[in-house]
Amino acid sequence: MHKGIPLTMPSSLTASLAYRDDWDYVAERLGWLDYRIAMRLHIQETLEPSSGGSDRSAFETKALQELLDGIEQYERRWTARMEESTKRGHRLSLPHLVNVFGLSPLEEKIILVCLAPECDRKYESLFELLQPGPGGKQLTPDVIATIVSDDAEERREVIRALRPDGMLRRFFVKAASSPRTGTLLAQPISLDERVVRFVLDAEVGLPATMADYTMHARPADVLEPLLGNQDVQTKLRRWLTNRSVRTEAAAAPIILSLWGEKGVGKKTHVRYLARYFDEPLLIVDMVKLLRSESNAENALQNVFREATISQSILVLDRFRPEDGDNPAIVNAELTLDKLSEMTGIVVLLSDRPCRTIDRRNRIDLEIEIAPLQDEERTAAWRTLAEPYEVAPELDWEALAARFLFTPGQIAQTFKSAASLSEWKWGVEGTAQIGWTDMIEAGYGQLNHGLAAKSKRLSPKNRWDDLVLPEAQKEKLRHACNHIQYKHTVYGNWGFNKKLSYGTGISLLFSGPPGTGKTMASEIVAKELDMEIYKIDLSQIISKYIGETEKNLSEIFDEAQKSYAVLFFDEADALFGKRSEVKDSHDKNANTEVAYLLQKMEEYRGISILATNYLQNMDEAFLRRINYVIRFPFPDEKQREEIWKHIYPVQTPLDPDIDYPFLARKLQLAGGSIKNIALTSAFLASGGRERVGMKHIFKAYQYELDKTNRALTRGELGEYDYLYEELNDGQ
């Protein structure tokens, strides 16, 4: 024992045995440290003036020699036991850190000195003996240099190793929370908590501060199926293999950037790469990191350290923010610069390319993970359906043609559809997913802003509700088939190879107001299980040049995400008779028409235009429309059919309602008949009566009032006895 330091020589029985665990290793290394501190204290004492000795006499003392012998014996034992531990494949935490960070033996000793007070508080008192005065218990670079260095050159190496920009200061030691003023040599430092926990317990998980935005993935983890872009995976494996064996790349990281829309499979590709190379992943959500950490630079240092400790491929997910004005873009650029401190493979995942912010060409390779092709998307629907109980008649090709989803969106669609099915059936786990469940869940995945410039309609009518000549109905059904079987014609029959763009259809509905154009649009949408949005073109057109095109572009861009039916009402506001260009206004109008035609041809869904005046349409325009359907004013037979079906079956009706008379005398379009039926129902309900002829005539009278017309006795025919009652009070 020396100055209260219990010095023990290790047992010779364990001299050639492998270390049992980290504690066994650290305990023996701390024994070495005790001898080093005792030696420094002994030298310090013998050099005091009261000792009366010289430097040479101090080193020649018997006590000093015993200390030096003890140090040497500890070092020989450490060498022997480490060799045995290596042979047996024992991984010890502190030697692991030395190996993966490429630390020198002197740097390992520095870490050991910093670790000592975390293991035993006696070292605080020993440090105070080496540096008497206020704050002497705190560890400083000066004390560390005194303990571990044997000469002036080693002391300078210790100071260099602890410089602020050195590896030890970046990853292992940190300044005390309340540093003293003075020189750098006197600044208190301590070992980072993460390093302490790892050295003493390598099995401990990620630090709590990092758990919100980081996760480990092991090569043996169960993986989601790799859906699409198989050739990209093959090429990435080959490229990384060739790049990794280059000697010039050994000291620098290999930075790979994968970009593509959310859910396309970027992270899945990286997981398959990790399995192929048998390496773990450290996946970092950069958006969450920037939200969680006030000091992004320190957080990145911790991430780099964690990736090195675990020898993981570092994956920086959501690397480039979606909003170009987001301040996080600056952090993305700085992160690219700091990646030079890393080694191994670093993968950047983003929705957009990252090369545009790579000012110093850090990125070695950038690849787009492209959206699924038609065949890949169909296969993805089939594959991801396997864990679920689905109706056998589900048409995967039709779903693939309708929803241009990523694998992530398809997987989420099945989860939502399963929940919808369970809700409808009321028994969890036994409900079979049907077509309507898939359609509803699919539309639930869509994120668009069509409602900002249009109104969503809720179709309720079916084919039987539409009173129209059979030829027009047949043409409408053919239009529906165009969408319903597009996957067959464009995919299986190869027409997609003949057309450069646009797999949807365009329809033009023409006819007087109230003849069923809006109803027909809703029926088409309901027949195809599609959403429908009504756009009033009169509200889209702007007097400012370019503004109309901008509005139309926004509508079609959002529609591409939704695969909805676009119903453009009041098309006459834009599609008048195109004439020769006589002034700038004519030229601008023609430009707007041409632009809409282009967007309609590019759109993959259904575009419907409604006009009251077909004769105003340019023939060149009509040639570019797939189907032109005329809605004639209904004749007497058609009007009678409308009257018979206009009232819901729940409505109490007078059995004496004369439908042939109404069809013959009230020459109205379907829209006006609908208004009269609804008004008559309210009149009857207010009088607590059945709907009868007097209610219908009264509602007809209100309809005439809209155009400043009066109901005449002659129009009532054999019902003229109601004339006085209808005009009572007027």
From TrEMBL:
Q: Which residues form the signal peptide?
A: none
Gene3D superfamilies the UniProt entry points to = P-loop containing nucleotide triphosphate hydrolases
Note the CDD domains from the entry.
RecA-like_protease
Record's keyword annotation contains Nucleotide-binding: yes
- SUPFAM superfamilies hit by this protein: P-loop containing nucleoside triphosphate hydrolases
Task: Quote the Pfam families the UniProt record gives.
Answer: AAA, WHD
Ordered alphabetically, the record's keywords are:
ATP-binding, Nucleotide-binding
Q: Residue limits of the AAA+ ATPase domain?
A: 252-374, 503-635
Q: Which family does it belong to?
A: Belongs to the AAA ATPase family.
Name listed for the protein in its UniProt record: AAA family ATPase
**What organism, scientifically named, is this protein from?**
Cohnella soli
